Amino acid sequence: MITTPRLRLRPLTEADTDWWVRLHADDEVNRFVGGYSREQAAARLRDIQQQWTLRGHGLCAVELTSSGEAIGRCGLNWWEQFGETEIGWTFARHHWGNGYATEAAQAVLTWGFGTLELAQITAMIHHGNTASAVVARRLGFTPLREDSVLGRACTVYALARDDFTAP
């Protein structure tokens, strides 16, 4: 469990399937990350649980500490084909513009570089996702390379532990 003054991040589990489907059902939310059927969501969440077991990290549900409402997801994802640990974030549209992505990602970076002692974390930002690119730059990420993830062009940003400034 990772906490900030406004947020609580907890590991996602298969029990979050219906919530995951609802989060990704909004066309604006899934524009860069895609939508999920219930079966696809359950399979993805099983993969996330397995990553928690095997690597000690994964994606988290982000909840408001004030109400317990799940408002998005943020966490670390290991990409075998790149040999990289990526940070990612996705939030329900009605929670955009409140600084939650930056706050959650800052907490995940502090945990990833501190507790997990990762040397570098990447952020794969699909072309056209200017809001996520702004968050990545605000956190200290800089462009590393152009690549493709899940068949879509993206800019891979990177942040080294030595360049990270904890809050």
TrEMBL record:
InterPro entries: Acyl_CoA_acyltransferase, GNAT_dom, N-acetyltransferase. Residues 7-162 form the N-acetyltransferase domain. PANTHER family: GNAT FAMILY, PUTATIVE (AFU_ORTHOLOGUE AFUA_3G00765)-RELATED-RELATED, N-ACETYLTRANSFERASE DOMAIN-CONTAINING PROTEIN. This is GNAT family N-acetyltransferase. It comes from Streptomyces bugieae.
